[in-house]
Amino acid sequence: MFVFSVITIIMLTMWSMYHSKATYLNRGSSLNIERKYCYWLMAMLVAVASFHEPEAYSDMLDYIEAYSLLKNMNYSQILDRWNDYIGYYGLCKVFVTLHIPLRCWLAFAQFIYILAIWKIVDKFSNDKILSLFLYVSMGLFAFSLQGMKQTMGHAFMLYAFYFLTERKYYATIACAVYAYFCHASVMVFIPALLVCYFKDSKYLPLVIAGVVFIFLSLTSEYLTILVGYSDRDRYFNYLEADNVYAATTYIFYVVMLIMATIGLYKKLKGNDGLNRLFYGLSIVTIALQFFATSHSFFFRLALLYQPFFYVCLSNSFTKNNGRRTFTFLQLLTIAMVTFYFLYSNRLAEFTINPFIDYD
Hints:
359 residues, globular
């Protein structure tokens, strides 16, 4: 709890410092300062990922054990044992072969992920520091410290989305294929790649919402299809698991979308295709989180679309000319996000220990 509180204070302080300076600077100068602050924040998060104690998350102990086992395994053995996640463990093996310490691997994995987040934020968000704060406060950063296989797959799906917006189609396909070999669940992200072509449709958010609710209305059948297609029987466990806590997160998401709707109302009515796209993908996030109240696996799927929520919320407080608007709505949203973040992590036993010996 203490570490998360410190991170919150640092990020909000930098956000306040930036906006106090940006008021007196032109757009180019303020953007350079904003990016400078973001680089410092991302470096801090990479350090936290590298130095946190593994006991904070039970899954991390399994990753540490696997990293140690890789020292005495060849690629054929890795494929036999972890054929489901060969993309992740194959890259791990490269680090092990080069005798790179586990701590450096953890830092590298977080760097790959936060760089993917940054690619989306830097290109599309009008308040980049706030977007990074949402990355931390809405739970994705904490999840990245324990669900490393899905995190790696998600990172490359975000790269695929970025390259698609740059019209680099071969890079898009390569990243999507590698993402699949890290964690099959990231294939749920593919609709985000497809609808990117239809961002100029005025009714895009409604189309996305309708398709998602119809497609996911048969939740158990959907998961059964996913298990059958990917041959990952362990996913059947999620069909029996309920996640009561997901209801709180779902309500929080809905409230945040209402805030974004108020802020983006005029842009959504106009010809702002990108904001309609991110607004629609934010609805996907909420739809997936809704079904997480019944099947916990959908919590992981909702996280895949969460970065679009960061852009959607951040852009809802920006005028068409790029200037920030300091309104009661904005401050209320930030206060609510901060409260949700600290409340949901109030029992987290998260500590930093730079002297821990992983070996």
